[in-house]
Design brief:
Blueprint: H1 3-24, E1 31-39, E2 45-58, H2 60-67, E3 87-95, E4 98-101, E5 105-108, E6 110-126, E7 132-142
Antiparallel strand pairs: 1-7, 2-6, 2-7, 3-4, 3-5, 3-6
């Protein structure tokens, strides 16, 4: 199977996972957020705060397949093709800088992780990379407090 076919297959699986999760999620206050950041090793970047059900963390190629030229909601640059798959990680932290209650979930090029509706900060991490673009799609089952980053108010 070609590399392009593998990437497309992974993107379709991620979209299917989103559809299944969305089908079983409560209808009230449901939203999705697409954000990006420049990741530097040793310092995770936080995308959004809220009640989070799942994260999809992606390198630029996977984000481009899933989101096309859509500009992330947090104003970060749109995804682009660079042809380099990376070992990336995503998590939710109750408090910035404190890896709790979950550890990092990592994957090659893309990682999909569901959670039991925890309120916290979504974060992107990865290997020993400096100044690379990474992206995250976040699903909320409930909004974070009004006035805070990621609030749906």
């Amino acid at each position: 199977m070609s590399r392009r076919s593998t990437i497309k297959r992974r993107a379709l699986l991620a979209i299917a996972a989103i559809a299944v999760t969305a089908a079983f999620a409560p209808a009230a206050a449901h939203a999705e957020y697409y954000g990006g950041c420049t990741y530097s090793w040793g310092a995770p970047c936080y995308i959004v705060y809220g009640g989070i059900n799942y994260l999809i963390t992606q390198d630029p190629d996977h984000a481009l397949i899933a989101w096309g030229n859509t500009r992330p909601f947090n104003g970060y640059k749109a995804a682009f093709h660079d042809g380099v798959e990376r070992d990336i990680c995503g998590t939710i932290m109750e408090h910035e800088g404190r890896l709790y209650p979950y550890g990092w979930t990592c994957g090659w090029g893309q990682v999909v992780q569901t959670y039991p509706g925890i309120v916290g900060y979504s974060a992107i991490g990865g290997g020993q990379y400096y100044n690379i673009a990474l992206y995250q799609m976040i699903d909320w089952g409930e909004a974070g407090p009004c006035g805070q980053q990621g609030s749906l108010c």
